[in-house]
Amino acid sequence: MSILKYLELFKLRIGMLLALTAIAGYFSVVETFQFYTFFILLVSIFFCSSGSSVFNHYYDRDIDRKMSRTRERPLAAGDMKNPINALWIAFSFLLIGIFISFYALNFVVTIHLALGAFIYMFVYTVWLKRRHWSNIVIGGASGSFPLLAGAAAANPEIFFLPMLMGITLFFWTPSHFWALAILIKDDYKKAGVPMLPVVVGDHKCAKFMMINTFLLLFSSIVPYFFGLLGIIYLIIALIFGFYFLWLNYKLLKNQNHIFARKMFLFSMVYLGGIFIAIVLDRNFGI
Questions:
Q1: CA distance 119 to 116
Q2: pTM score > 0.85 for this model?
């Protein structure tokens, strides 16, 4: 199997997104930037994220073959002669990441990374993904843990703001992934994966998304009212949040792929904007 195929197993784009959330968590509480701590944090995230992703490739290789979006993935396509080798890679990478974080950072970082991997691998991939539409709601909580790990790497004693950021990220995940699920609903239906649009249809899914996006907007402004972030952050959070809500409203009125795609793409802009606003507010008083 080629090097590129091995890299595909690691789902590097997801790894980069998780690294960005960890960076946001780190800069939300750090007082003095330390390159060594920052670098080790990213290395730990890489190994844990990659190990979890390889496990997902291994476990989902049967349903990946049924979906046009995933059927060319290395394990689904049969590029690895002995798929058991993927499990060795998965758990080796995961253990390396856990060991590095424990030895070079602190126990709190290790706990967050281990919990994130456990929820993604076993709660989402093994337990919920094929069984219930809440898969991405409960399983998506795994995405909040790298953010908490980043904050703990900077200062394990500060938890309140990172926790609120993690809650915002928790509410962001369903609106983001359900928009994608509407776009590729036929793939999920073909594979028998009960994503929300497959189970309840696009219109009802858009209603669920509207409620979730409202909770996302509300959760994003909570730090301001606790005095943790300033007025500029509040303004940015409201502008981004209401635009996200407006896109959701448009999707509710017309469940076509145009609005689903717009919502999916803007969700990533939204997350980046919110995290940049937090970092600027905490470090530059902007």
A1: 5
A2: yes
